[in-house]
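Task 17 of the worksheet. Students: predict the tertiary structure of the chain below and write it out as structure tokens. Keep your answer in the requested format; marks are given for formatting as well as content.
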Amino acid sequence: MNNHFALTSLFAALLSLSPLGLRAQDDNSYIHKQSDGYEWPTDKDVLRKLDQWQDLKFGVLMHWGLYSVPGIVESWQICSEDWITRPAEYTYEGYKQWYWGLSNVFNPTKFDPDQWARVMQDAGMKYMIFTTKHHDGFCMFDSRYTDFSIAHGPFADNPKADVAKYVFQAFRDKGFMTGCYFSKPDWHCKWFWNPYYATPNRMQNYKREQHPDWWRKYQRFTQDQLNELMTRYGKLDILWLDGGWVSGDDIGLDSVLAQARAGQQKGLICVDRTIQGRNENYQTPEQQIPDRQLNHPWESCITLTHAWGWIPNPDYKSANKVVALLAEVVAKGGCMVLGVGPSPEGLIPDDEAARLHEVGDWLRRNGEAIYSTRTTPNYHQGNLWFTANKNHRTLYAIYALEDGGQLPPTITWKGNVPKGDVTLIDGNVRLHTTVEGDRVTVALPKGLANAPVALKFSIE
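Model answer:
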């Protein structure tokens, strides 16, 4: 089938389905659950970097790959599981071949990582995670171990064909902590999905005990790719490993980490997500926030739209919604990474940048209540989320305004009784405050914009 015709046909079919091209019904099969426990690292350099990371609070997780070309959910439609819907005109094998063929048309001629970094800095983000390879196996870096990458095909002659190199450097130049997303499963690799068998689900499509040589080759392939990312792409702060149905132990992760940390990746934070233990240095609840405060390192990964990658006609979360989510995450002890997808051409779309600018504008005026804070025991009452500075003598109260909500004339809470003035952080405005026992009432100035507000006060 002609690539252009196929792309147009599929694109139209997907638009008639949900924005993700999945079943219209709710299905969380592709959302990775939070692990049940946490094990503190013993490496002092890792602990030091985790503490630095916990100061940053707000980051970006960027999905960009073959799925960006037609604007569909990342990778999952080539997985044959019963929760996935594909266009009716394709057989499963025909669809897979069409999807692999997107590598012949993915040509992001406007690719501008400096623009990405500017937009995310403007949004108030402090760290980034870039998808170097998703489950489909398509590499956004020039791997020496496969030709299935952005550095081959239409984009091969571009000076920035080794995309990851330029993305990481653009963000380093802006002072970001940099993270490398990498999928342990690889559905394109014949040593994971071997063409001798069908591919019934997300797992390798053979029994390891029947084909130990295939599995050893897959382990070596995965280790080789991780080693080249850890040695050829500059200083990295986070290795964010996805695909928890394959564990770090399955691929020999310990040896990769030991080599990386002994080299240029000293203190590297490893996130073997959903695999509780020594190599999940922070937890990653996806598209959700824990229901209670957690005082170990964790990160909610939440999308700006309804997808991780770029989709046409997106429904963006409002700036107030993003701030409300961020306030809740930080008050509960976590960081938040916002999922943002660059366009097929290689840019952050203008409407996306505009929404992120609104978030950044709020943070520029109120970020003291977010960045470098820690938890405080009395952390939530109604729309209020409380954080503390590191000396725990100064508290912040963030009134989170949901979509359609109205900022009240007064804000009231119990406990966290201020000693002295309560000020509006934006403009350092002293507020009229009444204390009756443990009940605190603060009057807000008239004429404030209908947006979240952040207050500051001392408790000693």
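Marker's comment: Residues 48 and 267 are 7 Å apart (CA to CA). Residues 1-27 have pLDDT under 50 and may be disordered.
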